[in-house]
Design a protein that fits this description.
Number of strands: 11
Helix content: under 10%
Low-confidence stretches: 1-5, 19-23
Number of helices: 1
Largest sheet: 11 strands, mixed, barrel
Shape: globular
Mean pLDDT: 90
Strand content: over 45%
């Protein structure tokens, strides 16, 4: 019953968000499924491997379903205290095989994360820098994300129970001979702990991109499987 109730509420939230955003100009919609594997080398050191595909579902005011890109990511995370960690990552984005006029991208990622737990909820502050490298340019991007997650039954997450993750993130992108670009993202996930090593998540993300100049609106439907080894 709780599963049905929470799924219904989340679906209602997504449909309401979609209805509002359809009235926006410059709206693009995507579906992005991904699979992630977490591998714990030591209690304080974790590898993460993920594969994500992004497909158009709304483009140029028309519904369509075409693949835009494929991302392969590796991330290493080192815990440096009870509530702090640092991480390094690398991403390769395959783009030109799906859109001939676009370029593939190599991305290096540096991250510092601080979390705090209180009464069953967890607060997270993430600071991240990135270097996005393509054949034609290098973009330096700086990101700050605030996130909140908590179980929907009690103060601890048990197998078969659900949880919520909500976050907002501000981004600044700078590159040579271009005007700085500011973005903002709002994300909500509903997840389930299927067993001790497997999580399923569905969510939505709304982005306002380049909002100090010509604002573009982007809506994502997100689905994720997270495996822990």
């Amino acid at each position: 019953m709780c599963f049905i109730k929470h799924s219904y509420l989340f679906l209602l939230f997504f449909l309401c968000t979609s209805s509002v955003l359809e009235a926006q100009a410059n709206l693009t919609g995507y579906w992005q499924p991904d699979v992630a594997i977490n591998y714990k080398v030591t209690p304080n050191y974790v590898h993460n491997f993920s594969l994500a595909k992004r497909s158009y579902i709304l483009k140029d005011d028309q519904t369509q379903f075409t693949v835009r890109q494929l991302d392969v990511v590796h991330f290493s995370n080192l815990k440096i205290g009870n509530d702090k960690s640092v991480g390094l990552g690398v991403l390769y984005r395959f783009r030109d095989i799906f859109e001939r006029t676009k370029e593939n991208e190599l991305r290096f990622i540096q991250q510092y994360n601080v979390t705090k737990s209180t009464r069953g909820a967890r607060l997270g502050n993430r600071f991240r820098s990135e270097q996005r490298i393509t054949k034609s340019s290098t973009i330096h991007r700086f990101r700050y994300r605030f996130a909140l997650d908590f179980p929907l039954q009690g103060e601890e997450l048990d197998v078969g129970e659900s949880y919520i993750i909500v976050s907002t993130e501000a981004l600044l992108s700078v590159a040579k001979a271009t005007v700085p670009e500011y973005d903002q993202r709002f994300t909500a996930h509903l997840g389930w702990l299927l067993d001790q090593n497997t999580k399923l998540q569905i969510g939505t993300e709304y982005r306002t991109e380049n909002y100090t100049q010509g604002t573009e609106h982007v809506l994502f439907l997100l689905t994720s499987i997270v495996l822990s080894l």
